[in-house]
Write a structure and sequence with these properties.
This protein is about 25% helix and about 25% strand. The chain is α+β, with helices and mostly antiparallel strands. Strands 6-1-7-8 form a four-stranded mixed sheet, covered by helices on one side. A two-stranded antiparallel ribbon has the order 2-5.
Length: about 150
């Protein structure tokens, strides 16, 4: 049986912090809703805390601490490395400060249309923009492997 290899490319600015007030969801990064999973933003009130945590509800993100794109990439690398699909996925990061978007048509088009990085491309198809969600990336890769 042939081994299926899924390529996951993430394009973004390594040191960019995904601020919760700039992008209300640290997992998918869209404001007012989730650009990755399509869910509406929800507000979660945590007992014993004075502030509320916001997330889209689809990726269940809502971290209080802003993480850099590089930190999120390292987390997804670790997540995949410890998963059942580790031998079937190739994960690569492209820092938009170091690569030319002219070499990647789909990324060039997204930036021209004012979509915000990071961009997640799975098997040549742009799946998500504005953030990195380990759960959603894993789910998509798993579905492609199973197909």
């Amino acid at each position: 049986m042939e081994v299926v290899m899924i390529k996951i490319d993430i394009f973004g600015f390594w040191d960019e912090k995904l601020e919760n007030n700039k992008k209300s969801c640290g997992g998918c990064g869209s404001s007012g809703g989730c650009g990755g999973c399509g869910k509406k933003k929800t507000t979660i009130e945590i007992v014993g805390k004075s502030e509320k945590t916001e997330g889209c509800g689809g990726c269940t993100s809502g971290s209080q601490v802003a993480k850099t794109v590089g930190q999120q990439y390292q987390e997804i690398m670790e997540y995949i490395k410890n998963s059942d699909i580790k031998d079937k996925v190739k994960l690569e990061f492209y820092d938009l400060k170091k690569v030319s978007v002219l070499d990647h048509d789909h990324i060039r088009i997204l930036t021209e249309m004012d979509y915000e990085p990071p961009f997640v491309v799975i098997d040549g198809i742009v799946r998500y923009y504005g953030g990195i969600s380990g759960h959603l990336i894993y789910k998509d890769a798993k579905e492609l492997i199973s197909a």
